[in-house]
TrEMBL record:
Keyword flag Oxidoreductase: yes
Active site per the UniProt annotation: 129, 254
Pathway: Amino-acid biosynthesis; L-lysine biosynthesis via DAP pathway; (S)-tetrahydrodipicolinate from L-aspartate: step 2/4; Amino-acid biosynthesis; L-methionine biosynthesis via de novo pathway; L-homoserine from L-aspartate: step 2/3; Amino-acid biosynthesis; L-threonine biosynthesis; L-threonine from L-aspartate: step 2/5
Keyword Cell cycle: no
Lineage: Bacteria, Bacillati, Actinomycetota, Actinomycetes, Kitasatosporales
Entry function: Catalyzes the NADPH-dependent formation of L-aspartate-semialdehyde (L-ASA) by the reductive dephosphorylation of L-aspartyl-4-phosphate.
UniProt superkingdom: Bacteria
CDD domains in the record: ASADH_C_bac_euk_like, VcASADH2_like_N
Pfam families: Semialdhyde_dh, Semialdhyde_dhC
Protein name per its UniProtKB record: Aspartate-semialdehyde dehydrogenase
Organism: Streptomyces cynarae
Length: 351
């Protein structure tokens, strides 16, 4: 019999992409249960061409579930994931609640699939979307060149902050559309007013050097995630990481500039060969023909797109890259689904 899957947080921005992916991938699941907060219970959502009613999260709802994909706030995951695991489900969690727990593997199937098999708490964590938007390409380069240091800046889409992020950008864009803003200081702020939603500053016609919540010494939670998660996924606990996270007025698809330093000298030719053949990576790099990845083209696709591959001007051991990944697909729903599929394969093999 096919395993039973629960999608927890089915009504959110990531949840709805999870349902699309379940309808697009090979149909390996038996029953699919959709769970969400009591507020969303009773709604009907389409999955695999059928309308399925959303149930409120409860202990009973997890009985008989083999694998549960969670996309809910940290505190909801912290409460419910261990309950689901105790009831026998293997949980694949996309919150930040368990990612750095030493007893919870943090898995990217193209990079460290073996880690998914060792899960003492019955929970597997899915990385943050910013880490995920670059790590498949970096994992491929690391496997050959040996990564030593990363210097990264992110250009993060508003859907990283969920439906509220998307709604905020759309509202702000409608307020500024047709106005002649941007010549006088404070223009955009005046038009947008206090309507900054989940962001600390207006995001339309702007860039905001902040994502997440404050951490020690001026760092943001998002920046700490990029460092800590990259180290854990790559198995490089001492990796040097310098990172600044920035929000930009893009709906979906995170971009990053990456300066990656390796153990020895690298060549662009070899780097391009690695990127062109790595699973889950597309090399799109011919600037003279206007070819480099942009969010407008990458959105809705599965791979990590890499362009602008150059050897660092002043360091023969370093590469410069521009990387784009759909933050709702590989950055969240797709990676979670891929992990769930790995687990289903394992359950099938041992059944
Ligand atoms: C963001 N990475 O883009 C976060 C969401 N997990 O806001």
């Amino acid at each position: 019999t096919k395993p039973t899957l629960a999608v927890v947080g089915a009504t959110g921005a990531v949840g709805s992409v999870m349902l699309q992916i379940l309808s697009q991938h090979a149909d390996i699941w038996g029953e699919i249960r959709l769970l969400a907060s009591p507020r969303s219970a009773g709604r009907k959502l389409a999955v695999r061409g059928e309308e399925v009613e959303v149930m409120a999260i409860s202990e009973e709802a997890f009985v008989g579930v083999d694998v549960a994909m969670f996309d809910v706030p940290d505190e909801v995951a912290a409460h419910w994931a261990p309950i689901a695991a105790a009831l026998g489900a293997i949980v694949v969690d996309n919150s930040g609640a368990f990612r750095m727990d030493p007893d919870v593997p943090l898995v990217v199937p193209e990079v460290n699939p073996h880690a998914a098999r060792v899960r003492p708490r019955g929970i597997i964590a899915n990385p943050n979307c910013t880490t995920l938007s670059m790590i498949v390409a970096l994992g491929a380069l690391h496997a050959e060149f040996g990564l030593r240091e990363l210097v990264v800046s992110s250009y993060q889409a508003v859907s990283g902050a969920g439906r509220a992020g998307i709604d905020t950008l759309r509202q702000q864009l409608s307020l500024v559309a047709g106005t002649e803003l941007g010549t006088k200081p404070g223009d955009v702020r005046r038009v947008v007013g206090d309507n900054t939603g989940p962001f600390p500053e207006p995001v339309a016609l702007n860039v905001v050097p902040w994502a997440g919540s404050p951490r020690e010494d001026g760092w943001s939670s998002e920046e700490m995630k990029v460092r800590d998660e990259s180290r854990k996924i790559l198995g490089l606990p001492q990796l040097r990481v310098a990172v600044t996270c920035v929000r930009v007025p893009v709906v979906t698809t995170h971009s990053l500039t990456v300066h990656a330093c390796f153990e020895g000298e690298v060549t662009v030719d070899r780097a391009r060969e690695i990127l062109a053949t790595a699973p889950g990576v597309v090399l799109f790099d011919n600037p003279e023909a206007g070819e480099f990845p942009t969010p407008a083209d990458v959105v809705g696709t599965d791979p990590t797109w890499v362009g602008r591959v150059r050897r660092a001007l002043d360091d023969p051991t370093a590469l410069e890259l521009f990387v784009c990944g759909d933050n709702l697909r590989k950055g969240a729903a797709l990676n979670t689904a891929q992990i769930a599929e790995l687990v289903a394969e394992e359950l099938g093999a041992t059944a």
